[in-house]
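Interim report, section 4.2 (structural modelling).
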Amino acid sequence: MFKVAAAILAREVGYKLLPFRFLRLDDTSPKNLLITAETGEYLFVSELQLRQLVGKQLERGTPLYKNLLARHFIYEPQRHNPIAEIAAQYRSRKEFLFGGPALHLFVVTLRCNHTCQYCQVSRAPLGGSGHDMSPEHASHAVNRLFESPSPVLTVEFQGGEPLLAFDRIRQIVEEVAERNEHEKRSIQFVISSTLHHLTDEILDFSKTHGIQFSTSLDGPAFLHNANRPTPGKDAYERTLKGIEWVRKRLGSDAASALTTLTAKSLQYPYAIIDEYVQQGFNSIALRPLSPYGFAKKSSQRLDYSMAEYIDFYKTSLAYLIRINQQGTYLSEGYTSLLLNNVLTPFSSGYVDLRSPVGAGVGTLLYNYDGDVYPSDEARMLLEMGEDGLRLGYVTQPLQELLRSPVIELLLSAGVAEALPGCSDCALVPYCGADPIEHFARQGDLIGHRAFSTFCQKNSELLTHLFRLLRDGDDDTQRVLLSWLARRSLEDLPVAGYKG
Amino acid sequence: MTWAGTIVLDESAYPLSVAQKAAYALSSILSILISRQGDALYLVVTPADLQNGASHLSEAQARVLITRSLNDFALRQQIQLETSGLRELLAGVALREAGV
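Predicted structure of the assembly:
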């Protein structure tokens, strides 16, 4: 009786659709369609349910109906206006747009002691002159940093090997710290380094200013040393010594590591992960090679197809989930970012996965020679002979830099929701536009999604993640939740009553 | 072995924009040339590129894929028509102060 009344009421009151997108997961599950709302809420439905939803044949009061209503796929016009609450959620997801550039990259030198074949930024010889940032340019860059209204700022030092220009790092950190006594921003300092040039003096200074270190560890010695040649053939040993030193002096969380994967690396997923476990890391980032700098020139030898990378990534992820279930906490960085985008109402803030584009809008790079770029990748293109993405010079005020035609160009190609191939994609709430990568790979800022490795990577990794969320057993789901919460499994609360 | 096939669409059921989106989405595996004659759209279909594995796709498989893609984009257009203006309204309300 109640069901009949509800059905009649539904027809009388009716529901309307809110904007949503759908994607076929192309598998045998009865719920093989992913539907996503504008704010990133999602559901898995069957073909029939999708047709019923669009055809207004859903019965009011059913679990599916309630779910669709709660997750903003439908609304009842005579009962409530959902625009304000959806707009609030949408705003949370796009919060990064409101603060101005928050990530400021300082390339203090191009000099480096490594001769990595895949180097993304090119480098200058160790004793090379004319490749260090001047004290004047550094001071101007600090002024630009504080012209950004963002209450939270990250200052990241890059190279070359930035520790070879530690005097410049010291100058910048001291100027920022002094200005911040009045500015009262939340500022994080990070040095991206091989850690080969650490000294007690550098570590003392880092301790005083809470500086974190980000390094590269490509796996066990045979892989790391093959990828990162040095004259002494001891890159691995020196980096490990540096990690140990940083941890001892600054704490165990003060050093994080990234992995760059060459074709050789793809043969060793387990060895790479085991190395991270052995070295006591709690996060690993399995990054594919970038299409920039020397990497592109050496790509015949070092590179691999995106399909090969995705196979490697899925194998690695399965292994990581398994060892986490056995009690080791080691999260994968990219999956953690994607989980944040899928399962929380907030953006991860990761620049490549932003729409509108993160480059320029969220990031600025001050090059050693005083030029300013919208991102690290734009600078990498410069080293390949493409200087069209320069915003201007470090002496120009921030507002002037942000009014550069380059920013306008990036924004015109940088809103994923409006791009061909993306505008109808159900994954767009969690993805980004990345016009600079498309320019590097396809010679066009918009690019063609059917041929885009950026699209292939994110589509396949996101659908893999959605399948894990839909089909994974409790243990798998708990591992993913622990990565999202950044807590080990044993510290993760168990849902429900435990009395 | 390569092949070429033609699919004829009633434009009142499958508008040009739907056919164009299907052609775009499938372009890594199929090359689809669209022309209009009267109220009909003609889709001339060939495998896109042997390197991309299109040689493994038979004409019958391609037809199934295109039909599914056309129907999906037609459904998306129906959703878009019904929710027309809401996306812009939401973004406008949410991002009013961001200046984007």
